[in-house]
Write a structure and sequence with these properties.
The chain folds into 2 domains: about 30 residues; about 45 residues. It is built from 2 helices and 2 strands. The two termini are about 20 Å apart. About 0% of the residues are buried.
Length: about 80
């Protein structure tokens, strides 16, 4: 792999991360319950707090898998 193609790929990954981050930021401002879905575990005790977003991770994984498969199929044409 040439350095120029590797550089282009890194730039594209960076741009896509900025877009995904911006979308998540906007969704958070609209009140979308990402991170507070049923099944997300939140334990709070005296001097201790633990948060495990299980369902949120599953939803994001499924959505990103579908998006990446669509992008890969479009680029493979």
């Amino acid at each position: 792999m040439e350095l120029s193609s590797l550089g282009k790929m890194i730039v594209l990954v960076g741009i896509s991360l900025v877009i995904v981050g911006g979308l998540l930021w906007l969704l958070g401002r609209t009140g979308f319950p990402l991170g507070r879905l049923p099944g997300d575990i939140h334990i709070e005790r005296d001097g201790f707090s633990c948060y495990v977003p299980l369902v949120t991770m599953l939803v994001l994984s499924i959505v990103l898998t579908i998006l990446l498969n669509i992008i890969i199929r479009l680029l493979a044409r």
